């Protein structure tokens, strides 16, 4: 598959993506954000992504530390540089553009 | 009634708005006790008008004076910058942080980093605020400046909905909040924050007029409370923020009947022997060089001798110049400065705006707590503002001084050619005692005249006194008042000499006249004597004649008797011939 070939040629890009998703309780918006990022990960970053979900209701001190304002916020911790996405992550194109992932099917 | 603590009879009506004292000098007075408790207040104004400072001081005062911890959510400056900025104002934010009385949170908004990928809300911010409040048990919060959110989040409709929710959240939290906002073009804030914060809006401005900048504060609205509506000047200095609510304090100050000496004994005499009333306002007006400052210096000197404290606002001369000049009339002001009884505050009127002068004076008076305040001269303040402004400022100053029972002595320079009884600032009605110093010109010299134009509530002299400055101070003398008008100085002396000469001449004249009378009397008496002598000689002559006639008659009678005898006639024919005259008869007798 084309996709496999491209991935194999860019071995150095094959590092693990670490995401942290900040949500506030189980609102419909957080649920859809979780679902959306999971879809993106499985579709474009299969096997090399890791997702941490943080409920700031449970750990409010983390909100300040991570400079969170909007909920949900997705932070790409690695690879650097850090990237931030806000919203329910329904606009996939913007996420992919922000993550420098070409859709290339 | 949520506060059942007070055992005052509670009238069962609407509960009045609870207020949260800011602890900021003056602000609590104009807001009638502070900001609305448990509600958000919007503070808006242009760049550099002091919003952040006011907000921070609100927290610091709350933490230190009212034991109310506060949260500062900064959207503009990192916490570390805030700490160093406020250190210069004497606020140790780190210390307060360590005492858990203050929490700083920097809400960084960087649009570049954020990718908008769907629907969101600002729950994260809410949680941060909530968390900060809860960790220190905050009663106060500042959001400075929440408007930067508009530059960070592109979806304005979400943002507006969230702001509404935020203010609601703050209200339900029962926390007193200050939200700052940058002034917009035609609106109070650039993004219309006033729509959300409906309880209290305070506007700060920093206006420059005639190159003089003045900071002002105004309460645009305060729902459910009376408040001062004016623009009040405020000051930012090393002690922070101070608002001076010095307008129309009212006329209910106590009036002292204690008297204070003017320092010039004859002037005391003119003012009903005892001098000015304590706590009254005194104006000395006059043209240049009439000795206004000297009278002020006498007053200061006398007060310091009594151990009173004097604050001298000089708008014309420097401290050292005044001290030197007054030494020339025998007043040593320096000793009082050294003893700490006298303090000079010198500033050029154009240094800052009139309001600012008032504010600094107000502050200086509060710090120094004087018994006597000298303003020398008030007319110079006009350089900084218009006449009406000067008048309003002075009335506020004098009201304030009267409230505090401080005696105010103002000098006023009247312009040459203008009416002397018109003070430039038109403030005569504010003054209790008005000394008018006048130059009396004549005889090739200028002399100073002093009189009391008015002095409320005491008997006072209505006479003009001449006053001269000597090395022993001010000497008051009577002036010459005669048909030629009021005379002073050399012409007074000349007039006095002239009068002396005139009176001498007059007394000489009297003597002369007296002698004349004597002389005339002698002459007349001599004449009388002469006449009498003449009369006496005439009388002798006539008496002689009468005697001769009588003799003739006798002789004739004897002769006729003899002839009759010779003619042998009888005795009866003895009659005299009637045709003969007396002289013939007499001649006959002689023969």
Summarize the structure in short.
Chain A is α+β, with helices and mostly antiparallel strands and 105 residues long. Chain A has helices at 2-9, 28-44, 61-65, 92-98; strands at residues 17-23, 49-55, 73-78, 83-86. Chain B has 2 domains: 19-243, P-loop containing nucleotide triphosphate hydrolases (Rossmann fold); 261-478, P-loop containing nucleotide triphosphate hydrolases (Rossmann fold, 3-Layer(aba) Sandwich), CATH 3.40.50.300.
3D architecture notes:
The complex is a heterodimer of chains A (105) and B (591). Chain A has helices spanning 2-9, 28-44, 61-65, 92-98; strands spanning 17-23, 49-55, 73-78, 83-86. Chain A is built from 4 helices and 4 strands; from the N terminus they run H-E-H-E-H-E-E-H. Chain A is globular. By secondary structure, chain A is of the alpha+beta class. Chain A has one domain (16-98): Glutaredoxin (3-Layer(aba) Sandwich). In chain A, 35% of the residues lie in helices and 23% in strands. With 591 residues, chain B is an alpha/beta fold. In chain B, strands 5-4-7-8-3-9-10-11-12 form a 9-stranded mixed sheet, sandwiched between helices. Chain B has a 9-stranded mixed sheet with strand order 17-16-18-19-15-20-21-22-23, with helices on both faces. In chain B, helix 12 runs parallel beside helix 13 and helix 14 (489-566) packs across helix 15 (582-590). Classes of the chains: A alpha+beta (105), B alpha/beta (591). The A-B interface holds A 22, 24, 29, 33, 36, 56-57, 60-61, 63-64, 67-74, 82-91, 94-95, 97-98 and B 105, 107-109, 113-125, 127-128, 130-132, 149, 152-153.
Named at the architecture level, the CATH assignment of the largest domain in chain B is 3-Layer(aba) Sandwich
Helical element count of chain A?
4
Going by helix content, strand content and strand pairing, the class of chain B is alpha/beta
Spans where pLDDT lies below 50 across 5 or more residues of chain B? 1-13
Mean pLDDT of chain A equals 78
Assembly type of the shown chains? heterodimer
Order of helices and strands of chain A: HEHEHEEH
> What's the main sheet of chain B like?
9 strands, mixed
Largest sheet of chain A: 4 strands, mixed
Write the CATH homologous superfamily of chain A.
Answer: Glutaredoxin
CATH superfamily of the largest domain in chain B: P-loop containing nucleotide triphosphate hydrolases
Please tell me how large the radius of gyration of chain B is: 51 Å
- Indicate the overall shape of chain B: rod-shaped
Q: What is the general shape of chain A?
A: globular
In angstroms, what separates the terminal alpha carbons of chain A? 9 Å
Indicate the proportion of strand residues of chain B: 15-25%
CATH architecture of chain A: 3-Layer(aba) Sandwich
What are the low-pLDDT stretches of chain A, counting only 5+ consecutive residues below 50? 1-12
Question: How many strands of chain B?
Answer: 25
What is the name of the CATH topology of the largest domain in chain B?
A: Rossmann fold
Number of domains of chain A: 1
């Amino acid at each position: 598959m084309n996709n496999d070939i491209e991935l194999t040629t860019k071995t150095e890009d094959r590092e693990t993506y670490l995401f942290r998703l900040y949500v506030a309780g189980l609102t419909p918006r957080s649920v859809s954000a979780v679902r959306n990022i999971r879809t993106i990960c499985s579709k474009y970053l299969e096997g090399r992504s890791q997702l941490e979900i943080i409920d700031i209701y449970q750990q409010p001190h983390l909100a300040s530390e991570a400079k969170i304002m909007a909920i949900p916020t997705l932070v790409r911790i690695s690879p650097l540089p850090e990237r931030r996405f806000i919203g329910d992550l329904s606009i996939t194109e913007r996420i992919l553009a922000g993550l420098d992932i070409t859709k290339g099917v | 009634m949520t506060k059942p603590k007070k055992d005052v009879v509670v009238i069962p009506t609407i509960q009045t708005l609870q207020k949260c004292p800011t602890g900021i000098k003056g602000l609590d007075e104009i807001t009638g006790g502070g900001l609305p408790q448990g509600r958000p207040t919007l503070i808006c104004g242009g760049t550099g008008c002091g919003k952040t400072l006011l907000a921070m001081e609100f927290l610091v005062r709350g933490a230190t004076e009212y034991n109310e911890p506060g949260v500062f959510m900064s959207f503009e400056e990192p916490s570390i910058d805030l700490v160093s900025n406020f250190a210069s104002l004497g606020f140790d934010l780190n210390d307060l942080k360590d005492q858990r009385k203050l929490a700083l949170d920097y809400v960084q908004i960087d649009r570049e980093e954020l990718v908008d990928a769907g629907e969101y809300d600002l729950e994260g911010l809410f949680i941060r605020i909530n968390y900060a409040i809860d960790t220190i048990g905050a009663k106060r919060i500042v959001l400075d400046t929440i408007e930067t959110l508009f530059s960070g989040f592109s979806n304005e409709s979400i943002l507006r909905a969230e702001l509404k929710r935020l203010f609601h959240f703050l209200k339900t939290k029962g926390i007193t909040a200050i939200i700052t906002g940058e002034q917009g073009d035609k609106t109070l804030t650039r993004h219309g924050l006033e729509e959300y914060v409906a309880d209290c809006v305070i506007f700060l401005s920093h206006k420059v007029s005639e190159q003089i900048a003045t900071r002002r504060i105004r309460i645009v609205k305060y729902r459910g409370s009376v408040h001062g509506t004016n623009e009040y000047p405020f000051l930012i200095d090393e002690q922070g923020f101070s608002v001076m609510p010095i307008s129309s304090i009212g006329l209910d100050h106590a009036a002292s009947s204690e008297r204070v000496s003017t320092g010039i004994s004859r002037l005391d005499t003119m003012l009903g022997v005892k001098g000015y009333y304590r706590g009254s306002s005194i104006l000395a007006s006059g043209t240049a060089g009439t000795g206004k400052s000297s009278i002020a210096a006498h007053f200061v000197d006398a007060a310091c001798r009594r151990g009173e404290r004097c604050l001298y606002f000089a708008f014309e001369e420097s401290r050292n110049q005044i001290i030197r000049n007054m030494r020339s009339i025998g007043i040593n002001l320096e000793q009082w400065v050294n003893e700490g009884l006298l303090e000079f505050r010198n500033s050029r009127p154009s240094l800052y705006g009139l309001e600012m002068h008032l504010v600094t004076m107000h502050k200086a008076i509060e710090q120094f707590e004087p018994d006597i305040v000298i303003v020398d001269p008030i007319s110079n303040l006009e350089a900084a503002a218009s006449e009406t402004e000067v008048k309003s400022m002075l009335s506020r100053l004098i009201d304030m001084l009267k409230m505090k029972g401080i005696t105010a002595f103002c000098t006023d320079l009247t312009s040459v050619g203008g009416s002397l009884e018109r003070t430039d600032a038109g403030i005569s009605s504010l003054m209790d005692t008005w000394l008018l110093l006048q130059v009396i010109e004549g005889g090739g010299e200028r002399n100073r005249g002093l009189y009391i134009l008015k002095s409320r509530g005491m008997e006072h002299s209505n006479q003009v006194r001449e006053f001269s400055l000597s090395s022993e101070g001010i000497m008051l003398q009577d002036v010459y008042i005669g048909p030629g008008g009021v005379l002073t100085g050399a012409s007074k002396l000349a007039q006095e000499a002239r009068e002396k000469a005139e009176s001498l001449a007059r007394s000489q004249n009297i003597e002369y006249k007296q002698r004349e009378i004597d002389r005339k009397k002698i002459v007349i008496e001599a004449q009388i004597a002469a006449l009498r002598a003449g009369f006496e000689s005439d009388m002798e002559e006539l008496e002689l004649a009468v005697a001769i006639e009588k003799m003739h008659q006798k002789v004739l009678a004897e002769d006729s008797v003899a002839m009759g005898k010779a003619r042998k006639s009888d005795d009866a024919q003895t009659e005299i011939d009637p045709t003969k005259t007396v002289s013939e008869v007499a001649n006959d007798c002689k023969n």
